[in-house]
Each structure stands twice: as structure tokens, then as C-alpha cells.
Amino acid sequence: MSSRASVTGEDIREGLSALGLGKGQTVMVHSSLSSFGRVEGGAPTVVQALLDVLGPEGTLVVPTFSQYLQDGETVWDRENTPSRMGIISETARTWPGAVRSNHAAHSLAAIGPMAELICRTPHRTGFGPDSPFKTLVEMDARVLLMGVTYNSCTLFHLFEAEARVPYRFVESRRATIIIDGIADPDGEAWEYTRMDGVANDFLVLGRELEERGLVKIARIGQSEQRLFRAADAYSVGMAKMANDP
After folding, report:
1. Using CB atoms within 10 A of its CB, is residue 120 exposed (0-12), middle (13-18) or buried (19+)?
2. Rounded distance, CA 110 to CA 52, Å?
3. Would you call 241 helix, strand, or coil by DSSP?
4. Which of 92, 104, 67, 124 lies closest to 179 in space, CA to CA?
5. Which residues of the chain are modeled with pLDDT < 70?
6. Helix, strand, or coil (residue 88)
7. Which end of the chain is more exposed for a tag (fewer CB within 10 A), N or C?
8. Contact at 8 Å (CB) between 104 and 67?
9. pLDDT of residue 192
């Protein structure tokens, strides 16, 4: 990997391959473009590098959450509402061939042969056993943190939902939801709401995963990368939830 101030697509490809990402895998990516320093070509370079490493048989998945109903927004358009999860996420959402899920509060976007299965299987909740996150566990997907901490890992909300933690509850929120240009003014999104005064700290689970040797860590440019199996995190996380929700 290059030690230059500028990071290239080849630097990213080499770094991800050394980390253990490879052809045919499905990977859920949480990311910060600024964490790399300067990337030649910006976010498209990162997305293309990920797709190159995964190959045509692999699938890239990103969270494309918006501020739907959180900052006063009352309309969500699957095709046009931007992701608020960083420029790499938004670039992947608008990538040719990308598929976005229908959940207004917590949508995902995916590129690759597993995209339809992950994003278009009907589900009511953003998290939980009927969500794309459980599908990622079941298909042995990887999770990649590109310059962000475990507190950005939305997969961990699945564990909270399945454990039925006492500090969150599911609520229905109605608004206008637009799918393929067709508006449903009586649309509904199921939000997994955290009670006031409660803060998540997923760093605890992340440290345990690392102590067990389940996380691969490498640096690309100035950005620290962490790669682990969703199923490993699920196994450890659910055991911890059973012990102390």
C-alpha cells in the first residue's frame, strides 16, 4: 500500500485484498471518505475498487438511511431521496445497476447478483428477523468498516431487535412514500426508536470481537479498515444480549 498523501484505486484494491476481501463475497460497508486523506477520483474510486475486489459474482451493500421523519421530513422517495450515510454510500446508491430497499427509515442499497434478494425481499422493519440485516447474517456476508468505528455498524441493531432490549420500541410512522414515482400518501415505515436518555456504545462488542481474533485490521492511506463476518458478530452479540440486554 502506498505511503503517499494521495490514495489511488490500486492502493485500495491491494489493501482490501490483503485484508481478506475477495471474489464472490457479499460485504456491507460503512465508510468515511475523509478518513483516507485524499483519494484520487474521490468516492467513485472507492466504490469501483470495492466492486473490482468483489468481482462480478460479489455484492456490495451500503446503508442509505435518510433523516426521514427525524428532521421534519414527511416524504421519502426511494429513487431520489439521498443517503445521509456519507458520500461513498450516496455514490453506491446512484451507481448503475444499484438496487435500493423499500424501507423508508432504514433503507439499504446493493450492487451485484444478491442485490434483489437483500433489498427487495418484503420486510416491515428496518431491523429484526424479517430485515435485510438478518439476510446478511444468513448468507455469511462480511462487514467492512472503512475509517469508522463500531458505533457506525448498523448490523448491531439487529441484535437489539432480536433480543427485544428494553430501551427500544417499534413504532409506526406515516408519511408519503414514493416508489418508482408512485406516491402513497398513507405510507407507513416502522421505526426502531431508542428511548430518550439512552445512548448506544457498540465499541464494547467491537473490542470483544477483536479480542477473540474475529476482526482483520489494516490501514489504507490514513484510514483504518476492519473486516469481520456478520455471522461471527451475530453469534457473539446475541450471546452478550442474552447475558445482559
Report:
1. middle
2. 15
3. helix
4. 104
5. 1-4, 68-72, 124, 167, 169, 190-195
6. helix
7. C
8. no
9. 67
How far is 75 from 185, CA to CA, in rounded Å?
9
Tell me which residue has cell 421505526. 191
Grid coordinates in use for 188? Answer: 407507513
Chain-centre distance of CA 144, in angstroms? Answer: 9
DSSP state of 58: -
pLDDT in tens, 121-171: 877 677 878 889 999 999 999 999 999 999 999 898 888 888 787 767 677
> What stretches of 53-141 adopt beta strand conformation (E)?
59-63, 75-77, 99-100, 108-111
Q: For residue 165, give the C-alpha cell.
A: 432490549
Specify the pLDDT at position 70.
Answer: 64
**184, three cell numbers:** 402513497
- The set of cell numbers assigned to 178 is 414514493
Question: Contact, 187 vs 177, CB < 8 A?
Answer: yes
Angle between the 156-163 and 230-243 helix axes, to the nearest 10 degrees?
40
* Three cell numbers written together for 93: 446508491
